[in-house]
């Protein structure tokens, strides 16, 4: 419970907003699959493999394809003519798959392909099913013939593939301890490695499906090496994904039809294990190097991009612009001519010329990294083939209307014939990628042209029947293809696309602009933009979350820089604020599980902390001619927000002021205003960073928000400029109905956004050096006051309607005022706090509930970094002009305790008087709340007691742990802020838990006063109390005073709360000025002194060591019975020393005469070494005389010098006796004597 904690513990006073996680790329549970070897009974030709994950229940492919090549060098040599260059990225044999939603229905599907040859799939598989290498002598001639045919096919048809075989692995059988060991797949032999259990390294939990958590935990399972022996022959007419899902579902049945088929015998050895956190030599899905990557020549491991089965709500943090093409089926049954062995060639075209085919298609295995074309596998003699091919493309960010996908259909001649080409084009079709500024994705049914398309075809769709063109089957839709995108550039949502497009039109001032069927001009752009902002609520939530950073940045840009259209400023602040409020509220409602302990959505908090930036400069006019200059801004695209550069010397890692006692901090601020620089958070680098920047990211997927960008294209016109915090405050104050309610629901977001905007503004405008009263204009200060007053009224008035909302609103307001103490005039902020208290105090309904809200509010506000300085610990109690006058902005923390304590009314320092609460404003609030909650007749319940006491205790712990407050003089000034706690605890004494013995003679429930001469009296006598209090007549016998004979009231505080309160009380006694304490005690009444001593005795009883065993208790009771008289004698001697009734000389004479006998007998044991009573007495652990010097340092010296303790002398020459009863504690604590060292005790 120290002040350096950055997150909230239970009832902790030093409470900070938890620092959100750095935005990073989404990762599910990751498994690594290593392909070790692939062997067939005969080796005659190269075989190529593909891995992918499928979810049978969702009927979805949940990963992209991973291609691997396990052929020998001899087999690879057959294709050297077609692959002259092999990129090392295509040699990968291990892949890392990510699974966000683990399920018992996930299969790892393995597909094998071979080089195209004459004959159907069955004929190609037959040799592998019937021939064995062991029978090579028997089939020698046939094997030689097959090898010769394969060599001929590889040299002539090496670029084409045909389906061969497939199999699947049920992953749940691998990862579960039961399924992996007992219910393994019948088609695989599991060989368990003896490496033990893989350690759990993932911190996030993932959703579990119908089976148990252990069975679907892909993050922690034993690595397994599997040998897959049986493959199923591919069926030429059943290659679609729908057929595959039926096969996979059938595999789970005991009587599987597939298992009755004759398999293709092979041995595929693979290793499946949880992926390490930081794998070496890893490539991202874009083939970028993921650190650590120490050697570029090592065979890499590829990360396989996941296609989650359901939505994943994670914003884009890295640049990604991938396109996936899935040809599905083709119907050429009515096509005339020799059209049977059909291959589909896919190209990404930047124009209509054949030379404009772009090399953006990823290579598969053992080939070049990128190609300009890709071919689908060929089904032999099939005029209506089905396809399962996946074509992966890395498309450019800036697409135009001329970019399109071109599909060319070829008939492949498998047999070499004279005057017959290898490829014969039999059809063409295309898909324009951009339409009305949007990327076209989805499923397409396209007609196929028999002839080559005419010029300018790319701007039209093939659905348009151009004159003079011949179409297959009379322009019917005969080709089905699906196009999907994984892009951080294109939203693929009409509502977001319209909003971003209109923002682009305004930024570039490109009027008129055609948007679908509407022409955007200066006259209607304002209405269209407002309508698009209203339409954002209709966008899919997952799309809004993926583009959350860009979306919020655009809305903020419209608020800060309202556009100028036709010379008029168009105020879009209200519409943007409304859209932002509704969007934030929608995200919060639908993502309730992604929140911290204060109800803050982590996605939104990370945006403010790491991504938000304040536009600093007005865009310049475009240059009239010449080359475009390079601007020092990040690269951006039409849908991305512009960001600005900021000095790298700031503390970019933190956006809130945190305690200097945090050991993670490298330095301590020299002034309270240095907090502003720490509140300034990290700026966001655009997600459109270059590939090199993306390749430098670490394997922990931290995004580019901690990096910096350097260049950007310039905006094209000047626009108006406003300050975000001023606009937010204004729009919030004037908002009504739905918008205000949405803003209240997520008040924390707008408060933090305003705070960061204010800190950015102070830093960037160099206003941080101005006096606090001059930093912000009066209109903004008035808006803040009105906003805080309105929200305070909501907190007080709506508690009985919506408890959760009010609690969230209360803590959000407290954190906001905590931040304002670092930015604005502190007197003004204290007035805001006082206005909050007035609003809450005026409502009498649910007093205990409102007290809890006030306590939470006070605890958060008092958690400020400079809480001690804000309380002015060195000032006098003269009432200031404001609740607490602001300290200078340049006053250093070190000089806060330079002034000396001045003489003032001591009694007022121990009271919660008006001067005390005005001078020490925050501590006065805290102690006042504590006093009200601890009132015996109050309605405080257990949770209120614990909340208030823990707040005070935790603050003291933070002071103790703070390295700024190690100096004793500083501690004395801090303890001065808590002096009223002493009388508060004294008044609470009847409510405290009783830690003392329950025996009638020594218990605290016995009558508080008995005759002074009673030696069994457990309390101090009146004469001794008068002597301690400094009575001028210490020897006089004063009349007896009485205490309530009914004993203490029944305790209302728990033992835990009482112990915590006593610790806080002792901390104040320990650190307070001894002279000040002595002066205060001298003015106390006898009743108050007795109560103080009783409290000290209770403290000793609370923290003393207590033996827990029964035998130990009996032993102590036996020792106590022997030493009871000695204890009473020691007490009498102590009283005589205090009262001065016997001097050192009389004591010496009495000892010499032997008038004082040992309680163990008549003989003096001082000279009898064989008697061990004294040693036993010294070694014992007495529950009444345990030395608690650690707590109170209560050593009392009884010696020949009368009242030496009261005279503050250290010339004691006789035995120093450590007596830790309440009497001895009072003697030391109240007389100010420096105790002897503990070794003397």
TrEMBL record:
| Taxonomic lineage | Eukaryota, Metazoa, Chordata, Craniata, Vertebrata
**Which GO-annotated molecular functions does the record name?**
guanyl-nucleotide exchange factor activity
One cellular component term from this protein's GO annotations in UniProt:
cytosol
Family recorded in the similarity comment: Belongs to the DOCK family.
Matching InterPro entries, A to Z?
Answer: C2_Dock-C, C2_DOCK-type_domain, C2_domain_sf, DOCK
Any one Pfam family here would be DOCK-C2
| Species assigned in the record | Oncorhynchus tshawytscha (Chinook salmon)
The C2 DOCK-type domain covers which part of the protein?
320-486
- What residue intervals traverse the membrane? none
Q: Which domain of life is it from?
A: Eukaryota
What this protein is called in its record is C2 DOCK-type domain-containing protein
Q: Which GO terms describe its biological process?
A: small GTPase-mediated signal transduction
Region annotation Disordered: where it falls in the sequence: 180-201, 651-675, 997-1017
List the biased-composition ranges (Basic and acidic residues).
Answer: 182-201
Which residue windows does the record flag with biased composition (Polar residues)? 656-671
């Amino acid at each position: 419970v120290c002040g350096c904690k950055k997150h909230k513990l239970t009832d902790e006073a030093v409470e900070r907003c938890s620092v959100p996680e750095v935005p990073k790329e989404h990762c599910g549970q990751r498994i690594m699959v290593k392909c070790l070897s692939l062997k067939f009974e005969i080796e005659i030709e190269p075989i190529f493999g593909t891995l992918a994950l499928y979810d049978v229940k969702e009927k979805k492919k949940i990963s992209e394809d991973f291609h691997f090549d396990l052929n020998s060098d001899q087999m690879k040599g057959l294709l050297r003519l077609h692959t002259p260059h092999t990129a090392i990225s295509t040699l990968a044999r291990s892949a890392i798959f990510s699974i966000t939603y683990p399920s018992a229905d996930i299969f790892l599907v393995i597909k094998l392909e071979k080089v195209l040859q004459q004959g159907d799939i069955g004929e190609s598989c037959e040799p592998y099913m019937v021939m064995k290498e062991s029978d090579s002598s028997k089939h020698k001639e046939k094997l030689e013939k097959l090898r010769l045919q394969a060599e001929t096919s590889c040299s002539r048809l090496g670029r084409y593939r045909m389906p061969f075989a497939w199999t699947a692995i049920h992953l749940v059988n691998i990862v579960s301890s039961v399924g992996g060991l007992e219910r393994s797949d019948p088609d695989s032999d599991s060989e368990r490695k003896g490496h033990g259990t893989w350690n759990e390294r993932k911190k996030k939990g993932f959703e579990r499906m119908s089976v148990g958590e252990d069975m679907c935990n892909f993050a922690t399972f034993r690595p397994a090496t599997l040998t897959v022996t049986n493959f199923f022959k591919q069926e030429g007419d059943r290659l679609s994904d729908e057929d595959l899902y039926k096969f996979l579902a059938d595999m789970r049945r005991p009587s599987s039809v597939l298992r009755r088929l004759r398999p293709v015998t092979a041995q595929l050895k693979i290793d499946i294990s949880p992926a390490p956190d930081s794998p070496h030599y890893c490539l991202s899905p874009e083939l970028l190097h993921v650190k650590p990557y120490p050697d570029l020549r090592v065979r890499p491991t590829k990360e396989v991009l996941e296609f989650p089965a359901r939505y994943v709500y994670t914003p884009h943090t890295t640049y990604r612009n991938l396109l996936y093409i899935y040809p599905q089926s083709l119907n050429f049954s009515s096509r005339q001519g020799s059209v049977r062995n059909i291959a589909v060639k896919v190209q990404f075209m930047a124009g209509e010329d054949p030379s404009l085919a772009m090399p953006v298609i990823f290579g598969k295995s053992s080939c070049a990294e990128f190609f300009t074309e890709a071919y689908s596998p060929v089904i032999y003699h099939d005029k209506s083939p089905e396809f399962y091919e996946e074509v992966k493309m890395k498309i450019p960010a800036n697409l135009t209307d001329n970019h399109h996908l071109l599909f060319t259909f070829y008939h492949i001649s498998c047999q070499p014939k004279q005057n017959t080409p290898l490829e014969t084009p039999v059809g063409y079709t295309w898909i324009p990628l951009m339409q009305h500024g949007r990327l076209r994705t989805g499923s397409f049914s396209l007609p196929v042209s028999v002839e080559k398309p005419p010029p300018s075809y790319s701007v039209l769709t093939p659905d348009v029947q151009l004159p003079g063109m011949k179409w297959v089957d009379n322009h019917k839709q005969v080709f089905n293809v699906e196009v999907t995108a994984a892009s951080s550039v294109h939203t693929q949502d009409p509502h977001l696309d319209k909003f971003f497009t209109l923002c682009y039109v305004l930024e570039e001032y490109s009027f008129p602009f055609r948007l679908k069927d509407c022409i955007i001009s200066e006259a209607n752009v304002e209405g269209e933009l407002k309508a698009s902002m209203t339409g954002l609520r209709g966008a899919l939530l997952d799309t809004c979350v993926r583009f959350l950073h860009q979306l919020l940045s655009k809305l903020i840009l419209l608020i800060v820089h309202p556009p100028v259209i036709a010379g008029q400023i168009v105020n879009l602040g209200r519409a943007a604020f409304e859209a932002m409020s509704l969007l934030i509220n929608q995200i919060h409602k639908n993502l309730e599980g992604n929140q911290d302990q204060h109800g803050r959505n982590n996605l939104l908090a990370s945006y403010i902390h790491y991504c938000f930036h304040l536009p600093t400069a007005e865009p310049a006019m475009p240059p009239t001619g010449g080359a475009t200059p390079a601007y020092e801004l990040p690269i951006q695209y039409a849908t991305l927000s512009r960001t600005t550069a900021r000095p790298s010397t700031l503390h970019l890692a933190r956006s809130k002021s945190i305690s200097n006692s945090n050991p993670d901090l490298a330095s301590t601020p020299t002034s309270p205003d240095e907090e502003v620089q720490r509140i300034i958070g990290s700026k966001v680098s655009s997600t459109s960073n270059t590939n090199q920047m993306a390749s430098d990211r670490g394997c922990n997927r931290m995004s580019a928000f901690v990096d910096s960008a350097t260049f950007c294209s310039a905006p094209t016109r000047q626009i108006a400029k406003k300050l975000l915090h001023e606009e937010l405050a204004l729009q919030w104050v004037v908002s009504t109905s739905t918008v205000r309610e949405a803003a209240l629901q997520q008040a924390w977001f707008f408060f933090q956004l305003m705070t960061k905007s204010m800190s950015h503004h102070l830093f960037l405008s160099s206003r941080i050096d101005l006096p606090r009263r001059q930093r912000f204009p009066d209109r903004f200060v008035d808006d803040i006051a009105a906003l805080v007053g309105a929200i305070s009224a909501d907190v007080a008035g709506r508690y009985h309607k919506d408890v959760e909302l009010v609690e969230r609103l209360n803590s959000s307001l407290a954190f906001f005022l905590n931040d304002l103490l670092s930015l604005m005039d502190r007197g003004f902020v204290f007035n805001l706090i006082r206005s909050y208290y007035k609003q809450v105090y005026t409502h009498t309904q649910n007093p205990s509930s409102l007290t809890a809200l006030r306590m939470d509010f006070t605890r958060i506000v008092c958690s400020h970094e400079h809480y001690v300085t804000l309380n002015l610990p060195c000032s006098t109690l003269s009432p200031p002009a404001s609740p607490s006058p602001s300290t200078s902005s340049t006053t250093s923390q070190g000089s806060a305790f330079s002034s000396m304590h001045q003489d003032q009314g001591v009694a007022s320092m121990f009271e919660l008087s008006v001067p005390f609460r005005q001078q020490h404003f925050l501590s006065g609030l805290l102690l006042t709340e504590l006093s009200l909650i601890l009132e015996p007749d109050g309605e405080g319940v257990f949770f209120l007691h614990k909340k208030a006491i823990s707040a005070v205790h935790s603050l003291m712990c933070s002071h103790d742990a703070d390295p700024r407050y190690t100096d004793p003089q500083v501690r004395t000034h801090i303890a001065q802020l808590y002096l009223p706690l002493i009388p508060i605890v004294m008044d609470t004494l009847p409510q405290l838990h009783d830690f003392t013995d329950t025996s009638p003679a020594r218990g605290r429930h016995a009558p508080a006063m008995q005759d002074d001469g009673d030696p069994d009296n457990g309390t101090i006598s009146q004469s001794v109390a008068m002597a301690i209090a400094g009575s001028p007549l210490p020897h006089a016998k004063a009349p007896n005073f009485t205490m309530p004979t009914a004993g203490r009231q029944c305790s209302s505080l728990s033992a835990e709360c009482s112990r915590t309160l006593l610790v806080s009380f002792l901390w104040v006694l320990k650190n307070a000025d001894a002279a000040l304490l002595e002066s205060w005690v001298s003015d106390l009444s006898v009743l108050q002194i007795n109560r103080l001593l009783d409290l000290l005795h209770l403290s000793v009883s609370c923290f003393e060591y207590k033996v827990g065993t029964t035998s130990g208790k009996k032993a102590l009771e036996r020792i106590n019975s022997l030493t009871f008289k000695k204890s009473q004698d020691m007490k009498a001697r102590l009283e005589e020393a205090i009262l001065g009734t016997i001097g050192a000389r009389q004591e010496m004479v009495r000892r010499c005469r032997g008038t004082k006998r040992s309680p163990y007998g008549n003989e003096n044991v001082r000279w009898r070494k064989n008697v061990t009573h004294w040693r036993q007495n010294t070694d014992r652990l007495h529950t009444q005389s345990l030395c608690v010097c650690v707590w109170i340092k209560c050593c009392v010296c009884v010696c020949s010098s009368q009242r030496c303790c009261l005279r503050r002398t250290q010339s004691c020459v006789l035995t120093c006796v450590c007596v830790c009863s309440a009497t001895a504690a009072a003697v030391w604590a109240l007389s100010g004597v420096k105790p002897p060292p503990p070794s003397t005790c």
